[in-house]
């Protein structure tokens, strides 16, 4: 076992993440075996299944990458799901009703995410409100804004093959999962930001001991706020991938995705106490969540089962996190 | 002298990259205070943690009251009568004093916790020990010294047969230390075995019967306290003799320019109308009793806490300092007295802590230049002789004194012109203390200026060129080193404004 832990590959990726990759393979195997049994005539061994699972992984992945920054500072953001929906609703409404050019709508989606990030960040960093409360408030605001703007109607972005539909290529070009490449690319950028830049260093240190960082002459407010802004920005990006995969968005929803994104994060080894984060882990976590929902649907269960399972995963992951921290003390 | 109650033999303990203990022996006797001494990182705390079941030993035996024991956790040790007062405080800030003392063994009244009994038991305990603290007070509202006294009371309340004090006095005032000694003597007379860890030589001479010395995780030897001198112990600890000579005159040339001028600084109740000047190349000592407002003054000056009024001039120019960021930009550095809370980021490496004050200087654009950063960290780890397997070690895994050195390293790399050292040698061993003193002297020779806040009289008279004494938030005296005596400092330190109410 120790020999395995010390392999260069394993050390580079991190033992926990290697275990998680193992979990993915195992899950795939279980679903492949169980699907035909539980749901006669169905099969899990199709490329389509993988593409469909990936569709889910993209937006959860982007949300998760964003919220990883926030959790790294020791905070939490419960508004990302609804913010993503609001961004998709408002920009989609502009596209379909006001005929704003598509490229501008995509930018608008990101800008909306950033705006919510600024609101969250300002109240947490400069007004010292608990991030829990601030982001719950933001979640309500986001849901409300989305509903008001679209007059509580759902918005359907142009479907594939129509005019103004090239954003679908961001998710998938024929059989090529472009979205997966983009997700990995953004995750790599996030990892560089977190581990190799000044901003990332400050964010992680703030998560460990904010007061000590402040007393070292660092403008902690600015850097803490930045984490929330990045988080909002990636929620805006997630919106594009959501509509790229599913086309239609409804107002008033999105909160379930918060939990899944946060679960992805914590599973991947990011500590809820702050100061410790892994972008690669978050991506793997998102893949697990996505594969699970695909498997549950394939086996013929309703989506409600997934909520139960996500809840359990969060409990297990957070318990493991606190336990490992206790052991280290 | 009493019988042996506990023996540790050939104890080994390894952490990744560090052999913290190798073949250590220790003998605790009934009715005796044993001093455990050694440099920072010698392994004192680790040895005591092995004894109380916090760490598992790799080898060796522990014999307690004639039988071999091995505890899996501190609770088992406690039930057997071995308790420890830790170097770092372990209290729950949001609970009351009584709740903290009875945590995990609350008196029950049916299913409910019997608060009244808990409070009255605590009161009784305090009365016995002559401690004046309200059991219903919230822990976080107490001074660090009082919290420490609670921790001690908690340990004693366990009906222990062996009590270990790991640097209990670092956060205590003179009078609290006196009280602690009274308690310890009392326990000794009741035939308990006591281990006392401290870096303060005068305390060792005063309270202990035997001294066991450790160096680099090894057992060096044991001396009878009354048969040896301070120098014998130091020699055994660090392998050389250290001379302590007080300063007799100021090293600052009379025409040295003023680098910092503070005028009528007010901040809350603890800083009232403080004005002073600091010259280039000067070490300005701030003396006073604990709670005199020196730390509060420094924090207000540094922008860590808001100030009510007052002007600050640096090199003759008026500056606005509202945040620590402003202060650092103007070349001021502040080493906090409470390193765990304000000084270091425990979960991060030495390198990450070291460059925190001036990260932009170790960046290329937005990217951190890791090589440059590592190089400078390594260099200062060597000069300060921080004991660590490598600069990537988490600060959490360093011994107390070495953590303090990391704080100092941070500000040295920060390259500030004006340094405020708040209790710079708290928890630091004699050898390292000497090194820090030399370092401070070197810094002022290089043209930097230092404000040194210290509660240790010997440190003040040894290092300062000029001394300011504070009492209850006001400056009550200013002394040139040439004409200073400890009596004089004490006189000013207790010069209270007429009939003030304490507490
Ligand atoms: N949990 C840990 N993980 C890794 N190394 C550790 C750990 N705890 C202690 N060490 C190392 O073991 C050595 C002994 O540390 P210890 O805390 O016992 O020193 P000490 O004698 O109490 O010093 P001080 O006077 O500074 O408190 C040090 O080199 C320290 O870095
Ligand atoms: Mg120690």
CATH class descriptor name of chain A: Mainly Alpha
The total number of structural domains of chain A is: 1
Helical percent range of chain B? 25-40%
CATH topology description of chain A: ABC transporter involved in vitamin B12 uptake, BtuC
Shape of chain B: globular
Beta strand count of chain A:
2
Contiguous runs where pLDDT drops below 50 for at least 5 residues of chain B: 499-503
Helix content of chain A: over 70%
Largest interface: A-B, 22 and 31 residues
Q: Which stretches of chain A are low in confidence, meaning pLDDT under 50 for 5 or more residues running?
A: none
Mean pLDDT of chain B comes to 89
Ions, cofactors and other ligands present here are: adenosine-5'-triphosphate, magnesium ion
Note the total helix count of chain B.
17
| Beta-strand percentage range of chain A | under 5%
Describe this structure in words.
The complex is a heterodimer of chains A (329) and B (503). Helices cover 75% and strands 1% of the residues of chain A. With 329 residues, chain A is an all-alpha fold. The two termini of chain A are 23 Å apart. Chain B folds into three domains: 235 residues, Rossmann fold, CATH 3.40.50.300; 141 residues, P-loop containing nucleotide triphosphate hydrolases (Rossmann fold, 3-Layer(aba) Sandwich), CATH 3.40.50.300; 78 residues, no CATH class. Chain B has 17 helices and 24 strands. In chain B, the strands form six sheets. Chain B has a six-stranded mixed beta sheet with strand order 6-9-10-3-11-12, sandwiched between helices. In chain B, strands 18-21-22-15-23-24 form a six-stranded mixed beta sheet, with helices on both faces. A four-stranded antiparallel beta sheet of chain B has the order 2-1-4-5, with helices on one face. In chain B, helix 13 crosses helix 14. The site of adenosine-5'-triphosphate (ATP) has 20 residues of chain B, from strand 2, helix 1 and helix 14.
């Amino acid at each position: 076992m120790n020999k395995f832990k010390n392999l260069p590959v394993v050390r580079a990726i991190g033992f926990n993440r290697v275990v998680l990759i193992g979990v993915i393979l195992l899950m795939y195997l279980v679903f492949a075996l169980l699907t035909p049994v539980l749901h006669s005539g169905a099969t899990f061994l199709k490329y389509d299944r993988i593409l469909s699972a990936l569709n889910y992984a993209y937006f959860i992945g982007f949300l998760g990458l964003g919220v990883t920054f926030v959790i790294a500072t020791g905070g939490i953001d419960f508004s990302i799901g609804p913010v993503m929906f609001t961004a998709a609703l408002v920009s989609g409404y502009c596209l379909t009703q006001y005929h704003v050019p598509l490229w501008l709508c995509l930018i608008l989606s990101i800008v909306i995410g950033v705006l919510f990030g600024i609101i969250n960040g300002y109240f947490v960093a400069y007004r010292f409100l608990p991030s829990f409360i601030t982001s719950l408030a933001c979640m309500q605001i986001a849901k409300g804004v989305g509903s008001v703007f679209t007059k509580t109607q759902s918005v359907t972005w142009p479907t594939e093959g129509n005019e103004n539909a090239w954003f679908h290529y961001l998710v998938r070009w024929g059989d090529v999962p472009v979205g997966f490449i983009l997700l990995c690319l953004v995750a790599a950028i996030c990892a560089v930001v977190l581990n190799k830049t000044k901003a990332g260093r400050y964010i992680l240190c703030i998560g460990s001991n904010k007061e000590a960082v402040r007393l070292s002459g660092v403008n902690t407010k600015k850097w803490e706020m930045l984490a929330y802004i990045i988080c909002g920005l990636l929620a805006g990006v997630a919106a594009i991938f959501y509509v790229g995969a599913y086309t239609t968005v409804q107002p008033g929803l999105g909160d379930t995705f918060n939990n899944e994104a946060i679960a992805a994060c914590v599973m991947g080894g990011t500590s809820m106490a702050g100061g410790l984060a892994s972008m690669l882990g978050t991506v793997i976590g998102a893949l697990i969540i996505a594969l699970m929902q695909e498997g549950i649907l394939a086996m013929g269960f309703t989506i409600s089962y997934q909520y139960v399972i996500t809840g359990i995963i969060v409990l297990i992951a957070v318990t493991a996190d606190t336990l490992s921290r206790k052991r280290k003390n | 002298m009493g019988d042996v109650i506990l023996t540790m033999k050939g104890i080994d303990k390894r952490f990744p990259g560090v052999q913290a203990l190798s073949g250590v022996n220790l003998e605790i006797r009934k009715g005796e205070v044993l001093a455990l001494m050694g440099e920072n990182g010698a392994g004192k705390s680790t040895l005591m943690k092995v004894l109380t079941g916090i760490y598992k030993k790799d080898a060796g035996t522990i014999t307690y009251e004639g039988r071999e024991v091995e505890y899996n956790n501190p609770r088992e040790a406690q039930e057997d009568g071995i308790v420890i007062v830790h170097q770092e405080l372990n209290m729950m800030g949001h609970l009351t004093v009584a709740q903290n003392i009875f945590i995990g063994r609350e008196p029950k009244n049916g299913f409910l916790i019997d608060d009244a009994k808990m409070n009255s038991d605590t009161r009784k305990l305090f009365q016995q020990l002559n401690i004046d603290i309200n059991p219903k007070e919230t822990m976080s509202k107490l001074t660090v010294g009082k919290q420490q006294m609670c921790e001690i009371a908690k340990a004693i309340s366990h009906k222990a047969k062996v009590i270990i004090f790991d640097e209990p006095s670092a956060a205590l005032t003179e009078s609290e230390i006196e009280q602690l000694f009274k308690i310890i003597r009392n326990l000794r007379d009741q035939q308990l075995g006591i281990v006392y860890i401290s870096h303060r030589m005068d305390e060792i001479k005063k309270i202990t019967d035997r001294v066991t010395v450790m160096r680099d995780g090894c057992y060096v030897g044991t001396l009878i306290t009354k048969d040896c001198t301070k120098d014998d112990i130091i020699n055994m600890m660090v392998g050389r003799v250290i001379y302590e000579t007080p300063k007799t005159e100021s090293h600052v040339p009379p025409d040295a320019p003023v680098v910092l001028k503070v005028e009528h600084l007010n901040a809350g109740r603890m800083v009232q109308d403080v004005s002073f000047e600091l010259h280039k190349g000067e070490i300005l000592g701030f003396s006073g009793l604990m709670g005199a407002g020196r730390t509060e003054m420094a924090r207000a000056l540094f922008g860590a806490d808001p100030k009510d009024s007052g002007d600050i001039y640096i090199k003759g120019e008026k500056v606005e300092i509202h945040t620590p960021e402003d202060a650092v930009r103007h070349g001021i550095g502040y080493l906090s007295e409470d390193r765990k809370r304000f000084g270091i980021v425990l979960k991060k490496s030495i390198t990450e802590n070291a460059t925190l004050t001036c990260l932009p200087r170790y960046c290329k654009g937005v990217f951190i230049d890791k090589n440059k950063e590592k190089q400078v960290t390594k260099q200062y780890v060597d000069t300060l002789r921080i004991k660590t397997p490598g600069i990537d070690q988490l600060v959490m895994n360093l011994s107390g004194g070495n953590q303090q050195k990391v704080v100092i390293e941070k500000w040295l790399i920060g390259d500030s012109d004006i340094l405020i050292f708040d209790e710079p040698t708290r928890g630091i061993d004699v050898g390292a203390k000497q090194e820090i003193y030399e370092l401070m002297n070197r810094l002022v020779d290089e043209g930097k200026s230092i404000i040194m806040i210290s509660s240790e009289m010997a440190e003040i008279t040894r290092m300062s060129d000029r001394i300011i004494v504070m009492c209850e938030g006001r400056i009550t005296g200013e002394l040139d080193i040439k004409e200073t005596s400890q009596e004089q400092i004490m006189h000013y330190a207790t010069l209270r404004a007429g009939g003030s109410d304490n507490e």
